[in-house]
Specification:
single chain; mainly beta; 4-stranded antiparallel beta sheet; 15 strands; globular; disordered C terminus
Amino acid sequence: MGMDHGLLQNTVWTIEEDYAHRLWFGSPSGVQYYNGFKLQTFKEISETVTTLHHHDSSMYAVSTIGIHKINEKNLTVLSFPFKYTDYYSVSFLDSSIIVNDSEGNTILYLDYNLERVAPFPFKKKNKTDFTFQLGDFSFHGNENGIYTKHPDSTIITQSYTTLSLIHISEP
């Protein structure tokens, strides 16, 4: 599936499945879902979407400018704007959402209705930031994930997978 089939971009950063088995796509141009027949685009969300998360009967889209809650039954959108445009990492817990900025600082603690919860129910952890170079790529990360930036572009890629280093010994 690509732009010739109706995708907003050939680059898709996140895919999630909802309760009705529809596939949702987050791209640098917004959010779409595929119901098995056609793609539906949400015009309310046209910015870069880095994360999709299904919870109960809602799909959450994390973008560079906010978090959007999409009701999967009536497809209405509720948005919580961020103060600044940035690449955010988000942790979805059982009853809450924690938002960290690109430096790993916790900046928001929300419930699943996108309302602020205060005070934080936990103490802030010390940052475990790291940076390393592999060829032309620069990797930055912490306990929230890894950010990769190629020197010849402005594209930043985020990964929530655990970094594993493999030692290869020479014969």
